[in-house]
Design a protein that fits this description.
six-stranded mixed sheet; 20% helix; single chain; binds zinc ion; 2 domains; alpha+beta; two-stranded antiparallel ribbon; YceD; 8 strands
Length: 189
């Protein structure tokens, strides 16, 4: 029987039907599968640290947990490998009897936290991970990682908004009677 439960499927036999009782546990275990599909994800086998408080209430077991993990992947701009710490908390009531308001149920005197851990971690993963906030990315022509070659970085690389602003200022300098932008571009070529 015991082997069928995952390490995050916790026994609460000592708490069932004992409102007011409370227990804390700390569990460290490898992720049973990859969490997340984005540029960075918590890989299968990487360490998951779980601090959990299990409280017996009248309706069931109230679970409060903090998850620490590390997501691995690559920078969305320069593709260098990076590791992103993930720290996330959740709270959920596991009811003794399922119902419309109860999504999770105490089953077989256990509360299975694995789906909750996975959902919390996936939601916490950065959508556009970067190795540093101002990562200039790759040179569009050579593919060189610009963070390694600061001398190659132009304002256009570091922030497209600056490039737009520079263009705006240039056209201001030409005064109100200057040609349209399209005409200017044609002349520059
Ligand atoms: Zn980067």
């Amino acid at each position: 029987m015991a082997t069928k439960h995952s390490v995050f499927d916790l026994s609460v036999r000592d708490l069932v039907n004992r409102p007011g009782e409370m227990r804390e546990e700390r569990i460290s275990a490898p992720a049973p599968e990859q969490f997340g599909e984005a540029l960075v994800a918590v890989k299968e086998g990487s360490a998951i640290d779980l601090d959990v408080r299990l409280e017996s209430v009248h309706e069931g077991i109230l679970v409060t947990a903090e998850v620490d993990a590390t997501a691995d992947g690559e920078c969305g701009r320069c593709l260098i490998e990076l590791a992103v710490p993930v720290q996330v908390e959740f709270q959920e009531l596991f009811g003794y009897h399922g119902g419309e308001a109860i999504e999770y149920e105490v089953q077989d005197d256990h509360v299975d936290l694995e789906p909750l851990i996975r959902d919390a971690v996936v939601l916490a993963l950065p959508f556009q991970p970067v190795c540093r906030p101002d990562c200039p990315g790759l040179d569009p022509e050579t593919g060189v990682r610009l963070a390694d070659h600061p001398e190659l970085v132009t304002p256009e690389h570091s922030d497209p908004r600056w490039a737009a602003l520079a263009g705006f200022q240039a056209s201001e300098d030409n005064g109100p009677d200057s040609m349209s932008g399209a005409d200017q571009q044609r002349e520059e070529r």
